Amino acid sequence: VQLVESGGGSVQAGGSLRLSCVATGYNISVYCMVWFRQAPGKEREGVAFIDSESDTSYADSVTGRFAISKDYAENTLYLQMNTLKPEDTAMYYCAADFVSDCVVGWARAGDFSYWGQGTQVTVS
Fold first, then answer.
1. Is 26 exposed, middle or buried (0-12, 13-18, 19+ CB in 10 A)?
2. Is the dihedral angle over the CA atoms 23, 39, 48, 101 positive or is it negative?
């Protein structure tokens, strides 16, 4: 299983970015997949979750601004980020695993075996 993120960058507050996570070695439809982020000096937090049935959940801090989705044809996970704020600045990682409670507030970083290398998002 390999996960490769892309799409990060620097953007002004109020702007948008779309992150991609290309998966190889498995079918994304069967896994819980999550976008985590980690800012310097802070714990890694899950911000957007999508389960094997494509049910989604979000951290309160991004609800209404971020949207997670899957493209089965491309075997790719996306995170559309709108109305970005400086506090969204972090390294963003996609993660995947068979996690039964694939919901914000339940699944934790330690529950996931497969991680991408991360992509930096900077909002000024």
1. middle
2. positive
Average pLDDT value for residue range 12-27: 96
Q: What is the DSSP secondary-structure string of 43-70?
A: --EEEEEE-TT--EEE-TTTTTTEEEEE
d(CA 55, CA 23): 19
Residue 1 pLDDT: 86
Report the DSSP pairing between strands 76-81 and 17-24: antiparallel
Query: Residue 109: which residues within 8 A CB-CB, separation 6 or more?
Result: 36, 44, 46, 95
CB 32 within 8 A of CB 51: yes
